[in-house]
Amino acid sequence: MRLAYTVVVFLLLCISAAVAATDALVPAATEKFEVFHNEAAEFVQRGELQVFDDGTAQYQSIGLQAPLRLSDTSAIAQDDSYTVVMRSLNSSAQFVASVKKCRLNSDQKVEETFVIHTFENGNVFHIDYDAGSSANCQNDRTETKPVTFTRVLLKKRALGPVPKLNAAPAIDMSTGREQQPEPPKSFLAKYWYYIVPIVLLLMIGGEEPQQEGNTRRQ
Amino acid sequence: MHFLVQTVLAVLLLGCCLQSVYGLFPDEAGRIDWYRAQIGVPTKLIPHTANDTSLLYASTQRNVVAALRADDGQIAWRHVLDEPIRTLLVRDERVLTQSGANESHVRVWDAAGGSLSWQVSVPGAGRAAAFVRGSSDVIAVAGDTLVRLTPESSSPVWELGLNNTAVYQRIVIHDDSVFVIGDAPATRKRKRRLHVVQVEASTGVVQLQYDTAEEVALRGGSVVALETRDYGAYLVWREPKNILWYVHRLGMTSPMWEIYHAKLVEVELMPPEMLSSTISEVDIDPGLKNTARFTLTYEKDSKTKTVVVEMFRDGDRLEMRKIASFLAPGRLVAAGPEHTVVAARSAESGATWRIRGSEKHSGDFAYARSNYGDVVRTALTFVNGQPHVVVQTASGLLAALQPGSDAPVWSRNEALAHAADMALLELLPPASSAEHAAQETDPSVQPSAVARFVLRWLAAARALGNWAASGFGIAGTHRPALGPTDGDHFGFRKLAVFGSATGAVTAVGSQDGAHAWSHHLAVGRAPVRIEHVFVARSGHVLGDAAPVVVAVGRGRNNTVVAAFDALTGNVLSQDVLPFVYVRAFELPATDSASGLRVLGLVVDGSEPRLAVWPATSDAVDAVCAFGSPLFFELGDTAGSTAVRGYRIECSSPSEPQLPARLEWEFALPAGERLVSAARYENGAQHTALQGRVLGDRRVLYKYLNPHLGMLATQHKQGIGVYVIDRVSGRLLHSAVHEYASVSRAHPFLATLSENRVIYQFWQGLPEGYVTAVIELFESDRPDTRDERTVVSSSDLRVPSVHSAAFVSPGAATALGTTRTGSSITTRDVLFGLASGKLLALPDALLDPRRPMRAPTKDEQAEGLMEYAAPLPLDPRRVLSHQHMVAGIRHVVSEPTHLESTAVVAAFGLDVFFTRTSPSGGFDQLAPSFSKANLVITTLALAAGCLLGAPMVRRKLTNRAWA
């Protein structure tokens, strides 16, 4: 009975440790943005964009019923542009990007792409936006299709390349010339101090069973 | 008979072939480049004789201290300093310079050879310096500190902190006293005045300090400091609104004035003339005589007159006497040895000059003032006892003149040392007699068929006569001398048109540097600071309208656009526009009326606008009729925190300036400031190959985008690098270089070429210059490309990036790449180095895909080499070979008619032109090619055919009968 109780307690401990470890693996959001699209001269929230500390990002659309409207922005909704405003919930940062509205004049589904540029620590410093296609501007259509698919690309600022320097050559102080590398040693020359004792041990220690056997035979 | 006709025809045919053979000849070796050493526009000229050689010492606006030989104007020696030169003095075979804005560098040079005798650097801006008489020491003001420096020690002998009530800018030394004179600003209780500190030269102890000379400033033209060997040092000044002149002996405060009088010299002046008069110092080596000279300039009868006054002492009395008078301002008067003075002034047809004193001479210098500007400085030298008057004009021309001759003994055009931009113009080869005949007998020119027939025969007869006159030489071997505006069949000869900050527009031949024409651009008397030169119309075809170049520059509050006939230098138009432009660029449109390329000038303001030049409705219509929208960006200057892109709007094309709409804004991350911006220049975006063919025959497609731009920023951690699309403002790549920094000593340089961005910066850890390369591809997977037929900057294209860094071959001051006609030839990356070398490295060395190990067979097939960090400073790749091209700021390359060859120019202080073939001269005859062998072989084959033909005929006949 006591054993069963101990096993149950041990299992419970294991489960709680596993849950704690799983919690630790869930990435934390470093930045969170409300995404507003301009519709009829006003900015209406369409989704939320989260950037996580593990180098991933997630876009979540929100429902069309009673969406939030953006009033305190300097962004101007141009007639011929489709503008998005990303307002950070962590800071006062606000990113504005736009594309020509005619790019959304498609009879197929319209895709949009956010390219999120981050520092090494995951903080966002620039956002690029693309929607539709420039080929749509050649269409006769004038009706703008709503965006139905969102793609997010995360680009971290790279560490610039540095020259990869070789070690400085050793100089022979007696001649002033570059020291030539020593010629590679053979396997025996390299490991003789391992091999010799083993061989000696084998030679010395290998006699005994035979003597024993001989003795037994005797 | 038939055989003879055949032979004659064959020979004639071969003769025709000879005419069209061109090649590089051995005698062209060493003639493909030229080099011109410059010193810049002088700020001071001092004649002096060192080692029995008459020299002219100069400090210049390009921070050069130099000695010119007075007999031929050639540079005896020169040194390019890193900082502006404040003081230049010459005495006893020594030259003293003081330079530096934050640190005062005092240097003493050997006057004859130019070697550095000693130097000491002292904290604080250099303001004044002087030799200590009878000693090698120098006393200098650095910031608010007076120091005595000696060649024996790097530390001052003594230093004295001066009170900061004045800005000390003048040192006068007499016996063991040093007088330091400064401008003391006005206070509530006191007027502006001069403050004098008397210091014992040997110990640095203050003996006396006092104020004098109210309401005058040292550089205001109302006070001079005079030095004599035995009779002390003096200040002479006149207060504003006062006709009295005061003469004060330095160090004597009671009485303060030794003389004060309205009539200082033997000149009768009315009070208005007296009140407008100015005085200036004139002695070139003050303090060595017992007389001191200065000039008094006044306006009388609408003329500017100057008298040269000599101060001397007669017993106890201090006297002034007039020794010469000139119709010229005092700044154009210069002193010579003994009692000689010279003055030059601008005249109707150039300049006129007079020497007065122990010798009397006069003369004229005939030149077009519109070409070189007014005379701004004069100096007097003596060569073998003969006076040489050196005049300097506003554009930077130095000319030495001598009595009895209007033509200069020598001249130097220093305007090229201040060149801000250069355009290379394609030139046509001189028309041959056949081309002239074709032009003359064109039906559109000569409608009469009979007249055309006669003209053709006359042209043929003329050509025959010329041929006979040339000794019946083979066509092509006898070539007339070509001028700077004559082109050649290979396109090697171009016209280089430079625009300088001095207002000079100068055209020289790219082949040999021969001067073609010059013009001085000014608004009133103020020179225009030229920043851009464009080719507005190129004359590619014989009979076309003359080519036109346009110079764009800034006046005081305006923009000047001047158009020139590129072949003659005649000014076609000069427009002074009532705004200051912030950006000038070529637009993809041509004004239909004039045939000129349309230029855009951005006018900044709350809403930027684009002014179009020529300002005609045709030009505006041409811009608005362009198929695609046009963009420009602002804010890409050093110190900016955001770059903005604008689209030109054609909503109201009738307006003289087109509005522009903000399209995008790229705000730099917080804490970062822009230090440099780069874009494609001079056709560097052109390419012949859309991809890199890999060793396994697959293709890695290049990310080609003509709107690529690069921004470099400085922040605490290092340098940020951003590659952007300049039309959409999208960020294509970003990187940070830690421990890197940008400063005036270590500038950031970048150049764009095809799909590469090449840049150099200073790395603090490990210390040294680094050259980094970013190469953009459409994808990192081979054979994967954007399949869209129309590619737009507005479409999102995320490139795949390869980058690598190398150790620079040296500190570069300019970067560029070679450019050939079709961009088939591989490019060389050009480094203009601070050491004066122009280095051309093959772009394969800067390939970011170089493997870090021995290359595989596929990589070898692709031409990839194993990575090695140092970029070699291979002497065989130094285009400038033995020339030291100082102060390179620009490296420019232009294609020739040969795909293999590009013209390369490097300029800044010096000018260097050459041509290079990065992939070898694959489309040229080798110098060892023997044309004689070719002719002999062809003749032998022809003879063989002729001899063999009867035999073959006979054989065929025999076979037919058999």
Overview of this structure, please?
The complex is a heterodimer of chains A (218) and B (962). With 218 residues, chain A is of the alpha+beta class. Chain A is built from three helices and ten strands; from the N terminus they run αββββββββββαα. Mean pLDDT of chain A is 79; it is low at 211-218. By secondary structure, chain B is mainly beta. Helix content of chain B is 10%, strand content 44%. Chain B has eight helices and 66 strands. In chain B, the strands form 17 sheets. Chain B has a six-stranded antiparallel beta sheet with strand order 44-45-46-49-48-47. In chain B, strands 56, 57, 58, 59 and 60 form a five-stranded antiparallel beta sheet that branches. In chain B, strands 1-66-65-64 form a four-stranded antiparallel beta sheet, with no helix packed on it. In chain B, α1 runs antiparallel to α8 (931-961) and α4 (433-440) packs antiparallel against α5 (449-469). Chain B is globular. The relative contact order of chain B is 0.06. The chains are: A alpha+beta (218), B mainly beta (962). Chain A binds chain B through residues 96-100, 103, 113, 115, 117, 119-120, 125-126, 128, 130, 133-135, 153, 155, 157-166, and chain B through 664-667, 669, 718-721, 730-731, 733-738, 740, 763, 766, 770, 772, 788, 790, 792, 794-796, 798, 801, 803-807, 848, 852, 867, 869-870.
Instruction: Please report the total strand number of chain B as a whole number.
Output: 66
Alpha-carbon distance between the two ends of chain B: 30 Å
Main beta sheet of chain B:
6 strands, antiparallel
The mean pLDDT of chain A is: 79
The helix content of chain A is 10-25%
Rg on CA atoms of chain A, Å: 35 Å
Secondary structure tally, helices of chain B: 8
Q: What is the arithmetic mean of pLDDT of chain B? A: 89
Strand order of the largest sheet of chain B: 44-45-46-49-48-47
Give me the strand/helix succession of chain A: HEEEEEEEEEEHH
Which of globular, elongated, flat, extended, rod-shaped describes the shape of chain A?
elongated
Structural classification of chain B: mainly beta
Distance between the termini of chain A: 61 Å
| Number of E-state strands of chain A | 10
**Low-pLDDT segments, ≥5 res of chain A:** 211-218
Query: Low-confidence spans of chain B: pLDDT under 50, at least 5 residues?
Result: 19-26
